Amino acid sequence: MLGGRRAARFHYRGHTVDDTGPYCQVGAVVFVGAAAFGPSKVAWGLFGRIVLTWILTLPLAGLMAAVGPARCRSPRTQGPGRKSGAH
User: What is residue 19's three-state secondary structure?
Assistant: First the structure.
């Protein structure tokens, strides 16, 4: 398990970013809760919303990354008398 957690870490501007922490923690809480108190005691609706946010994070981040620069290149931001792409 420790080797898997190391593989999920990467470095960004000198800082270590570990993206497996929340996934492991939520999964562990759900599993232990289901094992200790039974699956009927787990808040499956909340767990489903958490999983949905995990699934939607990357596509929405990609969409935002594509829309942001496109908005900066819109004709409204080019100024009067300037054409898009002209320097």
Answer: coil
